[in-house]
Each structure stands twice: as C-alpha cells, then as structure tokens.
Amino acid sequence: MLLSIPSTRSMRAISLLYLTSFLVPVLAEPKTCPVNSPLSCSGASGADTCCYNDPGGLILLTQFWDSEPATGPNDSWTIHGLWPDNCDGSWEQYCDKSREYSNMIDIIRTHGQTNLLDYMSTYWKDYQGDDESFWAHEWNKHGTCMSTFETGCYTAYEAQEEVVDYFKKTVELFQGLDTYQILADAGIRPDSSKTYALSELQNAISTTFGRPVTLNCKNSVLNEVWYFYNVRGSALLGEYIPTNPAGSTSTCPSTGIKYLPKGNSPSPPTTTSTSTTPEPTSPGDGDSFSGKGYLQVTTSGSQRGCLISNGKWYTTGTCATYTANKPASGEGFTLTSSKGSCGIVNDAFECGSGVPSGTFTANNGRLSVSSSYEFYADNVPSGTAQLPIYTSRKPTEVTVTWEAL
Length: 405
What we know:
Its EC number is 4.6.1.19. With 405 residues, the protein is of the alpha+beta class.
C-alpha cells in the first residue's frame, strides 16, 4: 500500500524514520569498506575505488530554489543532483554509456522503492514538469561517474540497483540539509520587498553546514546552493565530511540579492505514469528540429534572446535563420546558418565556413550534444554584447529550443 506524502514540515520531522524504513538498501549490499578508508581527495595512490571515490572525490549536493516558474513546495528547496567533481573543481560527465537509462520510474518501482518515488516526485522537480527525464539526466551525466557506484562494487549485483542507490543517497543528504529552514532560522525568508548581502546568506548556511557553500543567482535572484563534501568510504555508506568549495565561484552579487517567494503558483504535475519509451533523439520523433527555424535561448524558464548567425547568444538583435538537416545515414541532424556549418569547437557552439559540421540531437524539444541538453555561458548578455554558449560548465545555465519557420 502506498503511503500519502505528509506536509513539508512534517516530512522533515519524520525524515529519519522515513530513511530507516524505506531508504536502507534492500538488495545485495555494496562492498563493506574499512573504517579507516582514506578520505576522498587525500591523494591516496592505488586505493580501492570501491571505497575511495576517484577521480570524483569532491561530491556536491546541489539544490534549487525556483520561484519563476514556481517548482516544488513553497516552503522547501528542491533537489538538483549529486555531482562527483574532481578535487580541483573540474569534472567528468557521461562516464558509462552502457549504464545510461531513460526509464527511471520503472527502475525505481522494480526495486520496490515506491516511497522513494513519491518523495522524488515532490522534492526532485523539473521546472518544465518532466521529472523522469531530469532524473535520468542526473544519473546519466553524474551518477555514472561515481566510482563507488560501479557494478563491480556490489556483491550478487542486481541490474540497476546502483541507480536506485544514487537516488536514495541524494534524497538522504537533501533531507539532512533543509536550506529553507536554515535560512529561516537566521531570519531570512523569501520576500519580494527585501534584498540580502551575499555574506548574510553565506554566513547563515555555513554556520549550520560547517563550511562555506557556493550560492548562485540569476539576475541577482537567489536560485541555487552547492554543498561540498569529501567522503570516507563508498558514496552510499561512507562518511560525508563537509569541505570547502572548489571550481566555479558564486554567481551572486555581493549585495542586492533577492530571495523571491514561490507564491501560490501550482507546482508542475508530479510524475505518476510509467514510461519505458526512450527520450526522443532526432527530428521526426516529436522534437521537430528540421527545415528552417530560430534557435531560442532560455534561462531558468524565461526566454532570453536567441543565437545569431555566428552561433553566439544575443538578447536584443534579430534571430538568425538556421537550417536543420537529417543526414542520409545515422541519427541526429546538422545545423547551418548563413555563416556556414555549425559545430562544437573548444566546447563552444560556433558557426562559420571553417567550422567542422557537428551532429546534434533533440531532447524533449531542446538542442542536445552528447546526450546533454545543458549549455552554459559566462553571464546573460545585455545591450549589444554577444556571448558564446558552451557545453562545459559556466555560471549561467541555458537551454536552446527550436522555433520552426
């Protein structure tokens, strides 16, 4: 029998009971690691990577605060993911194509974790309402790069149990870090009439967490927090020890930060249907990247300009016309503009006469490269500025969609 989901505050109060009852692994146990296993990022040469997260030894729990569109409960942040960064702040991604999946609901239900699925459907939300694709993206991009979740680290391994364990651990960490309540305890609550200094927000969270965190903003609006850990032992059963950030710094200004309320806007529909159909990956299967059209750029649910003919992001000018063509053989499609063919050069999207033609795919209406629909920029361009968009992580995350002509 499925249990109903309590209110946010009562859910927090029973989180330990919930974890004990439902999130303890019920399948074959992962490898037991010695209590004196080396701490990740300690430079332990030759350590057992089932008990030593390597190379992704800097593990981030990332959370969202989406106020527009409002996503998740009004009094809770939501889960973004659990990321294994390298110790210097760089990272790997999509590390095992053989373990990339799209049917996350099926996988979770097959392993009897219906309560976990209910929780994720409330607190692990996609701002466009496609939770299952979001969960698949997080596992495929980040989970497959966690060495202690490799299948060889399990005894009597059962198919996809490491996927469920990744979700369970992410939820467990999230339940232990109620960012909304941490800020509220410091007198910081969502309010459209107030602004905060970065130091106020940082101090409130680091006092509880024990280390500084990375806070991210879009247009001076607080929308993300990254908590950093080193881990002693496996990512599932090991000891998580807070540590200092590395890599990208905060994208928030030093002052004038807004922490906007979610209001009473309804949350996107929770995921309840079972799907075994892979995500669409090419024109003609529901994403319509074909013929002529514009490449629109979206940040956190809001359209902000488009790509011009050289492939750069522009927010005030006229959109360039692109042509999407499906090749004679193979999957995906190519893109061209008046400047020439388009491709990825040094992690940046470019179009020009000397640019090698790249193969792109579509992911639920979003332009995708190597299974990822995330692109990044250093910031949001304004005025006449034109900025490249990248496949490697930068402070501003964007998606690119097709507007057919």
